[in-house]
């Protein structure tokens, strides 16, 4: 084996999926040396392309991209494929604009009451963005390499040895050393397993199939989502089908996915005798829901599917992982630069674990009402009634689109822990634009010299922005973390001691 100890990297990231790549961008923004080791030689895969690779981005994800100046590129990638995306997003072809679904039960945009979200202002992130994984990864990889991250493909991590000072990583017969290692290496994470993170949760109830087929008699299937006595199928003509077969997850990754097998499952689940002439593409997945009990062990951290896996129902896994990266990047960077308060890095797991646990439960709740059983059908009927009401649709939209996300940061102000509203500031920029350098922000709408003087004590970590915004939502002062979450806020004259405490807590003494 060839052994090589290059200059130690500040951070090694295992996995160049969307989460690893976005994290690499975050760390490069802070000027750290970043090595990304990716197992696959070739970043392209038909499963990342349309139609299977289509992913809807949640509000926190689009806000994160807006705050780092990535949203325009991602929207441009979406536009470039708009025709193919429209045909993949078959559920959009309806008279009313759908806003999401719960276990296949849709709710509609015109039922959603956004006025309930009084802490939000309209932002570019409100434009619903759906993009294929390949385009997303291409944008993120180009940004990460352009910023100087070293991305090596064909370097699957095989072993990890952490010490108190560094982490040694074996990949493709070579040895690498980093001060920190982040496992972004997906659901079967080698980093997670090598470092003994526990990963507990619930076993699967079904095998899900995503297939691209040619049918002899397509008219036997009903387009859209269909619940049947045997499971559920979604059909987007001419040949894209998602199937859920309640087999306890028995088939997943146990045998090759053959035409004969898919034919049998499709007939049974659809309760038809439809015939498949050709199987062009197929992959399986399950509703296994597991989560690492902590996302940090010493110098090793987990993010994305490496930290949590659940069924793709409701489309939240990617968004959850990108949220991990946004939460982790600035904390790890401040820790490495020694500007962080001592427990800042531990707040990553403390904040993100409950968010992941909630999403796992959200996906379990969907499975519970999809089972081909009378009790599940009865529950479905109740949810169908509730989701069609204004309050119901608003509740589901808040959960599915991530608007309800709030970290428990203590503090009495209702905005603390929430994503900062995208205030339009007097200099013509929005808060999102001010966050592009990943510095914190002290927004002082009443232009108080005492606050400016206070902010100057942290001027390498936060920017002070003063002046009346277009709509201040009743606020006078807001302290924003580099990830865009509110650390402290005040409606009236700010309490100086509270401000010092919040600044020290998040940006160091
Ligand atoms: C059918 C389906 C539909 C989905 N739809 C949605 C949706 O609409 N919305 C949504 O938010 N989510 C959705 N998801 C989930 C989403 O795709 C994942 O949560 C997301 O891809 C996770 O990103 P990641 O970077 O953590 O992991 P991955 O995308 O799995 O990337 C991990 C990377 O690590 C690499 N790797 C693996 N092992 C190693 C190793 N040992 N060393 C180095 N590299 C390694 C892999 O090659 C890969 O490139 C869906 C998933 C499926 C299966």
TrEMBL record:
Q: Name one Pfam family in it.
A: Rng_hyd_C
What are the UniProt keywords, alphabetically? FAD, Flavoprotein, Monooxygenase, Oxidoreductase
- All copies of domain FAD-binding, residue ranges: 10-363
Report if keyword Oxidoreductase is assigned.
yes
Which Gene Ontology MF annotations are present?
A: monooxygenase activity
Keyword Oxidoreductase belongs to the record? yes
Cofactor(s), names only, from the UniProt record: FAD
Q: Which domain of life is it from?
A: Bacteria
Q: Which Gene3D superfamilies match?
A: 3.30.70.2450, 3.40.30.120, FAD/NAD(P)-binding domain (3.50.50.60)
Q: What is this protein called?
A: FAD-dependent monooxygenase
Upper taxonomic lineage: Bacteria, Pseudomonadati, Pseudomonadota, Alphaproteobacteria, Hyphomicrobiales
